[in-house]
Amino acid sequence: MFCRHGVLAMPVVFLLAGAAAGSPAPVDLEAELGFGGWIVPGVWIPLRIEVAAHSAVDGELVIRTGTAQRPVSWRHPLRLGAGARQRLDLDVIIDDPREPVVLSVIVRADLLAERTIPTGALRAAEGIVIGVTDDAAGLEIVTDLPTRLRPAYLREAQLPVRWQAYEGVALVVVRDLQDSRLLPVQREALIQWVAQGGRLLVTGGESLMLQAPWLLDLLPAQPGVAARKVALPGLTGSGRPVPVIEIRPRPGVGTVAEGGTIAAAHWRYGRGVVTVWAFDPLTPDARAWPARRGLWSSLLEMRTQPAVASPDLGRVLPSSQGLSGRAQVGLAVLMVVYILVVRHALEHWVPARGGWLSLAAVTLIFAGVMDAFAVTARGSAIAGTQVTVIETMANLGSARAATYVSVVNPYGGTFRLQAPAGALLRPLERIPVTFLSASNHLSASAVGRGLLFESLQVLPQRAVARIVEHDGGAELTVRGSMGVRVESPVLFLRGRVYLLPDFVDELSVVLEPTKWEGLEARGPIPQDLRSQIRFAIYARLREADGLRDRPWLLGWVSDARPRVTLSDSSAVAALQLLVIEVETDS
């Protein structure tokens, strides 16, 4: 089958079973990579694997991709009894879809089975539009839009189980959804992805009345009575009535009306956008509407709010690390001892017969000691610095924690990074890396100065900040349940800052106009790391669309939940900045 541009449609499921001809396969593997056969390079995408064991298996599943120079692999323990089945929902990153993805089952260093998932440049997409629908048709229009997206029709079981795996998704369209087929983690992943800046469309028709309660709670309008025939000439290009269900918008949401009928409603949910259409755009008649192209374009162009933290923040972290003070003292002591021993040997041992052999022995002994010391010093030279931006999402009871880690490994050697459970950890450099057991724990053996890694997770956290105007001026109030002390907080708005007192959970301050300071008036940017990080965030808040012209509260905190650990390191510094978008009564 060919799609509209002649691109060969790829199969969704790849059967990876097999063994030598004439003998039963010890393990059967079924795998589905990406979304409906599409891969978005460089971002997290789901990999669903079904494993069936015909005999007991106690080993590991290894997934390999990348090039010989930059291999990337995932190692997952695999323990199954005879006749058992297991489903693995993993998330992987494919930097180059031209390189195959190889699955191997290894038991006690023996290769039990190995199969390849077909990949290729034709499977790469810039973004995905997911349609949750029983009818796999109607979204082909997105291939004709300038965004160059690709449609993927999925059922409930194929939806990601972690919100990070939606990273390459531009829009999720829900038309037919059987909530009983969704896992709780799949529901949570979809909700969290929307809150992180995703776009969700729930279409109308009779199915809108049958959606799950948790999904209806996301909508900017609630469904009313059953569908009725209404003319929508702006969409259909004619006065012929089409089925439209009544929707009741919530207060303050954006709506689109035609002929006195509310055809659509949308609102902001966290940093994302949720839209409901009172009509069904995927019916055969709707696919011929003249305004269909503009309808989908406007939906995909609907602006969401970007994250405050971006990978550019990692560039301000240190990219070099000197020897520790202990290592320098040890080196100095060894040098002094060596000089004293050699001097003693020259004065007392060398004149005697065979004295030069004694000197040679001393030199060899010290060479071994220095080599051992050098190995220890090289290990201590591995250092890491991390910065975390905890961005609280108002009224949602959660926060996005983005941690950027800079690892200095000037002499090489293996090191490990482990992020907390629920986070996904990835290198921002194209280096050889192995993920251990899960995608929040990796091992790397790269030589570099300032190797950057990113960890993303969602934390339960509630904090609401608000500025209220009254006759006496403006008052800032903060109410939350963060449980940490916010140090050196400031209120930031359009390049000006207002210094605030430290607080825990609650704060109430009357803002005096004369206490606002411009950043320029504060002089040059200090060179300490905290100031560099804070000013990098200031710059993003001033420049990024969707962030500027809003007040923000920033302050330093110490929270163990998003901390990334670095093994075999003598120096790990962690800085954490809390960022809260401040509501206003306007």
Short description:
The chain has 586 residues and is of the alpha+beta class.
Low-confidence stretches: 1-22
The description of the largest β-sheet is:
13 strands, mixed
Helicity, as a percent range: 10-25%
Average pLDDT figure: 85
The percentage of residues in β strands lies in: 35-45%
| Rg result | 30 Å
**What's the N-to-C terminus distance?**
54 Å
Q: How many individual β-strands?
A: 36
- Provide the number of structural domains: 4
Number of helices: 7
What can you tell me about this protein's structure?
This protein has 586 residues and is of the alpha+beta class. It has four domains: 14-123, Sandwich (Immunoglobulin-like); 128-300, Class I glutamine amidotransferase (GATase) domain (Rossmann fold); 307-322 and 381-586, no CATH class; 325-380. Helix content is 16%, strand content 39%. It is flat, with a radius of gyration of 30 Å.
Architecture blueprint of SSEs:
Layout: E1 14-15, E2 27-33, E3 44-53, E4 57-66, E5 71-80, E6 85-93, E7 101-107, E8 110-117, E9 128-132, E10 150-154, E11 169-174, H1 184-195, E12 199-202, H2 213-216, E13 221-223, E14 228-231, H3 233-236, E15 241-244, E16 247-249, E17 254-258, E18 261-269, E19 272-277, H4 292-300, H5 325-349, H6 355-380, E20 383-393, E21 398-409, E22 415-418, E23 424-427, E24 433-436, E25 441-444, E26 448-460, E27 463-470, E28 473-480, E29 485-493, E30 496-499, E31 503-504, E32 506-511, E33 517-518, H7 529-543, E34 552-557, E35 565-566, E36 571-584
Parallel strand pairs: 5-24, 9-10, 9-11, 11-12, 12-19, 20-36, 27-36
Antiparallel strand pairs: 1-2, 2-3, 3-6, 4-5, 4-7, 7-8, 13-16, 14-15, 17-18, 18-19, 20-21, 21-26, 22-25, 22-35, 23-26, 24-25, 27-28, 28-32, 29-30, 29-31, 29-34, 30-33, 34-36
